[in-house]
Each structure stands twice: as C-alpha cells, then as structure tokens.
Design brief:
This protein has three domains: 169 residues, 2-Layer Sandwich (Beta-Lactamase); 90 residues, Helix Hairpins, CATH 1.10.287.130; 151 residues, Heat Shock Protein 90 (2-Layer Sandwich), CATH 3.30.565. With 476 residues, the chain is an alpha+beta fold. Helix content is 56%, strand content 19%.
Length: 476
C-alpha cells in the first residue's frame, strides 16, 4: 500500500469501523443485560407471589373445611399470575409429583404427572433453580425458568414452584434492536467513510501537488508553484514554505545562470585579447617596435583575470566560512594604510582625498575581512570619481555603532539601479563604469562581510555625489 491516500484512508476506516464495532457491541450488551435483568425481576416477583399463594393452598389442605373453595381461588390466582408474566407455572409436591400447570388460559390440575427429575434434584440440592432451556422437554421452546421451594415451616418442603417466562420476547427484542442498530450503523458508517474519503483526499492533495512540483524541480522547471489550500492550517503553512523555497530556488538558478554568463564573459574577453596579441607577436603581424605595448596590455589582462579569480575565491571563502577569528584593531589606522596604498592612483586622477576619522577607533572583528571591505569601497570610489574630483571618508561612533561612509563626486547611479549594486556580479551602472573592467563582486564582498559581522550596508546617489557606507556593532 504505497499510496499515502490509501494508507490514511485504511487507517481512518479501520478506526471508524472498530469504533462502531465497540460501540455496537457495548450497546447490544447493555440492551441484552437490561432485558435479562427485567426478566429476572419478573421471574423473582412472579415466583414470590406463586410461592406465597401455593403455601396458603398447601396449608389449607390440612383442614377439610373450605378445601374446595381454596382450591378454586388458587386456580384463578395462578392463572392470573401466569397471564401477568405471559408464562407457565408448574407446581409439584415435595416428592416432585406434578399437581398444577398454570397458563394464561387456565390453571389445570394434574394427576400422575412428574416434574423433571434433574430440575427437582437441582432445586433440592441448591435451594433454588435458574435455567434457560425448554424445561427438559416440557416446553416447546426455550424459557427462562426459576424454581423455588415452598416451606410453611423452615426445613420442611411442602411443594415446589417453577415459573417459566418465554425467552422469545427477549430474543425478539434483541434481534429487533440489533437489526435496527446494524442498519443505522451501516448507513452512518457509509456516510462517514464517504466523508473520510473527502477529508483524506483534501489532506493529501496539497502533498501530491508538492510532490509533483518537486518532480518538476528535478526536471529543471523552477517556475512551478503549489496552490494554497483554502484552510489556513499546517498544510497551508507547508505550501507557503514550499513556494517560498521554490522562489528562492528559482532566484538561485537565475543567479547561477547569471554567474556562469558573467564569469564566461569576464574570462572570454581577456582571454580573446591575450590570444589575439600573442598570435600577432608570434606570426609577426605585430612589429617588434610595438610588441612591448601589446605585452603590457597582455599583462593588464592577466592581472584582470587574477583579480577576478581572487574575488571569486574571496566570495567562496566568505560564504563558506563566515566570520573568522575576531581581533581588536585600530580601524582608523587601517583606513590610513589603505589610503596610502592608493596614493599613485589618487595622483594620476588628481583626486582630493578628505579624511574625517578619529585619531583612534578600536573595533573587534575579523581584521582581514574588514580590510577587504574598506579596500573595495575605496577602489570603487577611485574607479568612478571624476578627474580632479573629491573622495571623502568619514568614521565615527554613534549610539553604540561604528559608522563608516565614503563618498565621491562624479556621475550618479540611477535610482532603479541603486537597490541592486550590492548583488553578486551586478554591473548595471555601465554609465559610470567607463572602463568596463569591474568583476561585479567588489560591493557584494562588502555586503557579505558587513552582514556577517552583524552590520548593515547602504548606498545613495544624488547631486553628482555617490555615497556608500556601513555600520557595525561597536563591541570591543
């Protein structure tokens, strides 16, 4: 039974069937028990009255006066008792000889009749008799039979009274109730099973849809989404979570494709340039007096490939390892060292560098990662600042957080591009990137490093000034 629907339906159906079976058995048992108690009560009451009446008769027989009158009254009384219980009453003497048989029609005097020997023996030995049979052939069907000794003086048996009440009424009631109960139970059970099918199907449907969507993902289709159930229950939450995961997977797939395309483009362009110039030098197309110029271009392209490889390795390390060992260092001194490393480029573009940083600002963080982040921001500013422009760096501690910003004059970043500048391999600011040699990983590295340290990054561009910044917790 591999189907989840079949398994759930089987389990629910078995629980329902067993529940009805237990309920039905309990109900029928209670009805039968109640009927038996009613019969027992009827037998006890009739037996008591019959014993009392019989004891009066046998006492009156000791006197010849009024014997016939007492006998006539007794016969009428016994017939009435038999009619009241709709049964048969057998009366015998102390030796088990049958004297009277009372029915709802009449009470008959018997001669030469004998009560069943087994019943008489059981009554004499136990002092009472209770059976469910045909009174050893005296009756045409099974009766509930109660036997009692008649003793005018304790220890002295005057007579025996056996009251038989038909079991057919109880059996008929039992069968009628059982038939009615089974009928309604079958109807309710059928309706319940139909409802179970609907409930189980509605429960399993979202899971099947999720399974189908997962198979689509396996085939490379990441656009499939699971319809949300109407009820906002656990399955609804599961569907929402699955769709969220699907959207993330689709974004990852789009990023992967973009990554492959970007890396392929960034690698193919310099490789084509290098191959073309090398072939030109080898086949003599490029004259010896121009070879040095083209070798420098080849060197620049090789360095560009190296920077791309290093950036990708840095991204891989950051995404895999997170924050490395934290140390306390002077962030102001780090900024000064980075500025010195860019001195040649500042001079070439005649950039005015302005530092608004404290003499010392301690920070507890991964030194190399923070260095890389600030270096990338400075490199980005130098790349896009206009000639003879201004780059301004600001560092301050406010409200328990360290704030760093770097701004540069030059062209603005369009508002629709600004939210994407920290994305991996994003190079949408082509209007500013005149060199076209960026890898699209610099700002992504900045965002990854800062986020891993519990900080936030920001970007703004207006009035020909572009500002990037980040904040970090100032814990020492």
């Amino acid at each position: 039974m591999k189907s989840l629907f079949a398994k759930n339906f089987f389990i629910y159906a078995m629980v329902i069937v067993l529940s009805f079976a237990i309920l039905g058995s309990t109900f029928i048992y209670q009805v039968n028990h109640f009927a038996m108690e009613e019969k027992q009560s009827q037998l006890t009451e009739t037996s008591a009255r019959a014993v009392q009446t019989t004891a009066t008769l046998y006492t009156s027989r000791r006197s010849t006066d009024w014997r016939e009158e007492f006998t006539r009254i007794y016969l009428v009384s016994m017939r009435q008792l038999a009619a009241d219980c709709d049964g048969v009453i057998f009366v015998g003497d102390a030796e088990g000889n049958l004297d009277f048989i009372a029915t709802s029609v009449n009470c008959y005097t018997q001669e030469n009749g004998v009560l069943p020997k087994l019943a008489v023996t059981s009554l004499e030995q136990n002092g009472s008799y209770m059976e469910h049979n045909n009174f050893y052939g005296f009756l045409s069907e099974d009766y509930y039979i109660s036997g009692t000794l008649v003793e005018s003086v304790p220890g002295t048996t005057d007579a025996m009274v056996f009251v038989a009440v038909p079991a057919s009424s109880t059996t008929s009631l039992f069968r009628q109730l059982s038939t009615t109960f089974i009928f309604f139970t079958t109807v309710v059970l059928a309706l319940t099973l139909v409802a179970t099918v609907v409930v189980v199907r509605s429960t399993v449907r979202p899971l099947k849809q999720i399974a189908d969507a997962a198979r689509s993902f396996g085939r490379g289709d990441y656009t499939v989404r699971v319809p949300l159930p109407e009820r906002q229950d656990e399955l609804y939450d599961l569907a929402v979570s699955f769709n969220s995961m699907a959207a993330s997977m689709e974004n990852v797939e789009m990023t992967r494709r973009g990554l492959i395309a970007s890396v392929s483009h960034d690698i193919r362009t310099p490789m084509t340039t290098i191959a073309g110039f090398v072939d030109g030098i080898l086949d003599g197309t490029i004259k010896p007096d121009r070879q040095e110029h083209y070798l420098r271009i080849i060197s620049d392209e090789v360095k560009r490939l190296a920077r791309l490889a290093n950036s990708m390795l840095t991204v891989s390390r950051l995404e895999a390892g997170g924050v490395q060992k934290k140390t306390v260092f002077d962030m102001s001194e780090m900024i000064r060292r980075i500025i010195i490393s860019f001195e040649q480029r500042f001079t070439e573009k005649q950039i005015d560098v302005r530092l608004n940083i404290p003499e010392r600002q301690d920070l507890s963080a991964d030194h190399d990662s923070i260095f890389q982040a600030i270096y990338n921001l400075v490199d980005n500013a130098v790349k896009f600042v206009d000639r003879s422009g201004v780059i301004e760096l600001t560092l301050a501690e406010k409200g328990g957080r360290i704030q760093f910003t770097i701004s540069n004059t030059g062209g603005e970043i369009p508002a629709d591009i600004l939210p994407h500048v920290f994305e991996r391999f994003y190079k949408g600011d082509a209007s500013r990137n005149t060199s076209g040699k960026g890898s699209g990983l610099g700002l992504y590295i900045v965002k990854t490093v800062i986020n891993q340290h519990g900080g936030d990054v920001s970007a703004a561009s207006a009035d020909n000034v572009t500002t990037f910044g980040f904040t970090l917790p100032a814990d020492k």
